[in-house]
Automatic annotation (TrEMBL):
Its cofactor is pyridoxal 5'-phosphate. It comes from Sphingosinicella rhizophila. NCBIfam families: ilvA_1Cterm (TIGR01127), PRK07334.1 (NF005600). Signal peptide: none annotated. PANTHER family: L-THREONINE DEHYDRATASE CATABOLIC TDCB, THREONINE DEHYDRATASE, MITOCHONDRIAL-RELATED. Residues 335-412 form the ACT domain. It catalyses: L-serine = pyruvate + NH4(+). This is Threonine ammonia-lyase. Its EC number is 4.3.1.19. Belongs to the serine/threonine dehydratase family. GO terms for molecular function: threonine deaminase activity. It comes from the Bacteria.
Length: 412
């Protein structure tokens, strides 16, 4: 039975979500929801993973975009549609627009990862790069929509889009009906609004938690009344939205139990862990649910928790950086700054200690000039890799015992 709050929030209903599921069936991938034994062991919870990064465009956005396009009449489609997106909504509209013969224009923020721009172009869409943020791209898209008589397809604050995104929940609960908690990334709120509608109608006892990047807590502020800035270079650009939707905010206030914030290092760790454990590539926004689970371990211990890998479109260079930074945080990789006398054989004595401890040297940087050290001294930065943090610390202790001053170079 639906809760009173749900009955009051009837802009989208379970029937709308179910109708959307029938409408898009066969045109989007029915992605699996699987129990992750390794993540379950690591967190103490039973962790069920929904692999929406396995969609053709590698993100759940196809569901809402397709539902919206299918509900347009032929005359509207013929004139064409326009959307503003950091990437995944863009690809979804472009891909399904091409399938249905609909002309598509996409306005994307200038910093959008190149992989998302290229993939959107590959579906035949006309790309307009404008502004530094989604909000600036959105304003330009609205201007162009009026100028060119195009229909705007909103990435989240649209009832048809919300209903389409809610189909994720129908599949998850069909595959894992005993879920107790759902962790859902939030940008503008379209996904969690659709999921909340379905989940709270089917089983109002499921705890529904939103997750936002700490740098962009717009929905969190809308719900709590707090005044926090939404700005910065987040790795989760897919949920970097400064202003949540009006419709989605109403649904979130009524149906979502709480919103959690996650830091950039927590998101990076989740991306790396998913690649190592699940052998799956996930973008920053897609890893937010796992980041929240890892950051709040005791809260979820012993419970059946569902997370959604909402997308997998991450720039390969950025992914490489994330993986290497995670090796640093785990102690398997380091840069050690070592002070020594600038004389023949000094560096060799250091390198011998690395050899004795079987710590692999990746690169050496030697600095004599740009330093405040005495002219007869120098320092070297050695990038190296070890088995684990304890292995590395053993080397550091030996270097210090031999009289070298050692300073690990830290990252955030």
């Amino acid at each position: 039975m639906a809760s009173p709050a749900l009955r009051q929030t009837s802009a989208v209903t379970l029937s709308d979500v179910q109708a959307a599921a029938r409408r898009i069936e066969g045109a989007v991938v029915r992605t699996p929801t699987q129990l992750s034994r390794t993540l379950s062991d690591a967190t103490g919870a039973s962790v069920y993973v929904k692999f929406e990064n396995l969609q053709f465009t590698a993100a759940y956005k196809e569901r809402g975009a397709l539902n919206r396009l299918l509900l347009m009449d032929e005359a509207v489609r013929a004139r064409g549609v326009i959307a503003a997106s950091a990437g995944n909504h863009a690809q979804a509209v472009a891909y399904h627009g091409a399938r249905l013969g609909v002309p598509v224009t996409i306005v994307m923020p200038i910093p959008t990862p190149s992989v998302k721009v290229m993939q959107t172009e590959s579906h035949g869409a006309t790309i307009v790069l404008h502004g530094e943020t989604f909000d600036e791209a959105y304003a330009e898209a609205m201007r162009l929509a009026a100028e060119r008589d195009l229909t705007f397809v909103h990435p989240f604050d649209d009832l048809d889009v919300i209903a389409g995104q809610g189909t994720v929940a129908l599949e998850m609960l069909a595959d894992a009906p005993d879920l107790e908690v759902l962790l859902v990334p939030i940008g503008g709120g379209g996904l969690i609004s659709g999921i909340a509608t379905a989940v709270k109608w089917i089983n109002p006892d499921i705890e529904l938690l939103g997750v936002q990047a700490q740098l962009y807590p717009s929905m969190y502020c809308s719900v709590t009344g707090k005044n926090l800035a939404s700005a910065g270079d987040t790795i989760a650009e897919g949920i970097a939205v400064k202003e949540p939707g009006r419709r989605t905010a109403e649904i979130v206030r009524a149906l979502v139990d709480e919103i959690l914030l996650v830091t950039e290092p927590e998101i990076e760790t989740a991306i790396s862990l998913l690649l190592q454990i699940e052998k799956t590539v996930v973008e920053g926004a897609g890893a937010a649910g796992l980041a929240a689970l890892l950051a709040n371990g005791e809260r979820f211990r012993g419970r059946k928790v569902g997370i959604i890998l909402t997308g997998g479109n991450i720039d390969t260079r950025l992914l490489a950086t994330v993986l290497l930074r995670d090796l640093v945080r785990s102690g398997r990789m380091a840069r050690l700054r070592i002070q020594l006398q600038d004389r023949p054989g000094a560096m060799l004595s250091v390198v011998k200690l690395f050899d004795q401890h079987q710590v692999n040297i990746i690169e050496i940087f030697h600095q004599r000039i740009f330093t405040a050290l005495p002219a007869k001294d120098t320092f070297i930065d050695i990038e190296c890799e070890a088995r684990d943090a304890e292995h590395l610390q053993g080397l550091v202790r030996k270097l210090e015992q031999e009289g070298f001053s050692v300073h690990p170079v830290e990252i955030g």
